[in-house]
Amino acid sequence: MLGQERTVLPLLARDTFRLSAYTAALTYIVAFGATKAVANFFAGTLSDRYGRKPVLVAGWLVAVPVPLLLIWAPSWGWIVFANVLLGVSQGLTWSTTVIMKIDLVGPASRGLAMGFNEAAGYLAVAVTALASGAIAAHAGLRPGPFLLGAAYAALALGLSTLAVRETREHARLEAGRHAASGHDPDAALSTGQIVRRTSLGDRSLSAASQAGMVNNLNDALAWGVFPILFAAHHVPLARIGLLAALYPAVWGLGQLVTGWWSDRAGRKHLITAGMLVQAVAIGLVALGTSVPAWAAAQVLLGVGTALVYPTLLAVVGDIAHPAWRARAVGVYRLWRDGGFAVGAVLAGAVADAWGLTAAIWAVAALTAVSGLVVAVRMDESHPARARGVVPAEGAPAAADHPQG
Prior knowledge:
Growth Hormone, Chain: A, disordered C terminus, transmembrane helix, mainly alpha, single chain, globular, 80% helix
């Protein structure tokens, strides 16, 4: 659903709706990011209250009209509204898949599970961005690329309704084991306490939240600004689609390795390195003037993001108590996906004032600072690594983590 937009919507804003100001052209990303961030928060709370599956199905029901609105939109306001719905849908559906996988796996394999989850999503983004560019090059910007989204929404709604099973009882079973082991002082935290702990109170959770926000700020730049930069250098539409696909493709494939790696080597250093690699890659986009240079930068950006993305989710899974883990994931994802809105506003404002290249450099600098914050503020959260023990293959690790 995101892949259908990454190649096409920035060019639709410029060529069909004649939006000349970058800030105006990126309003759809602001709408998406803001609503997805809020929906993430409520997805965790609703998943704890009503179960995971009802939230997942509701999210896909909200997604059904999105491709139709993108196809028929007579004005830019319709595009923005479609992305409001898309943000609600993504917040409910993707948060729930994360929570369900954390429910189903033990602490020793959370990174691997998050790697599979995020790889599935971002490989789909890459494939669809590439396909959308190819379709648009042959059939125009509308309606062809968005027919893919209509098929995806129908397929996902059917699978969620018919094939997915509820997982909330797995989390309740794990919470019961905490209580039986005497590791249960934090089981009864209120939602407000969870928000404060995840946002500021816990060193590692707050470091993860800010890194997640900056990571998706980068993604807003790649989504909304990079295609315009490439088009300004007269890159053909099909090649813009290829460049738009490279970043999420490497990101997606890489997570199959990096999630597992964080289970073996720990979380903190992978996140720090990933943020700094992203900063370098974004700087290379600003310096680049050719398709090969931009392709190399997109690959490097994908590598950096792959190091970070599943690992941050694993950090939250390590630290949060099973009784309120879903809500902690929702709070973390509220901050993380708020980065879409912040990134779109920041990139648009800087680009309007000083140009596209200045906007790219500003985001590169922020990303480097974020990596340094993780290096200073985050504690190692993997249960075995935090105790200086490397778990044997297949061996369970402790489920608790001392709060930072």
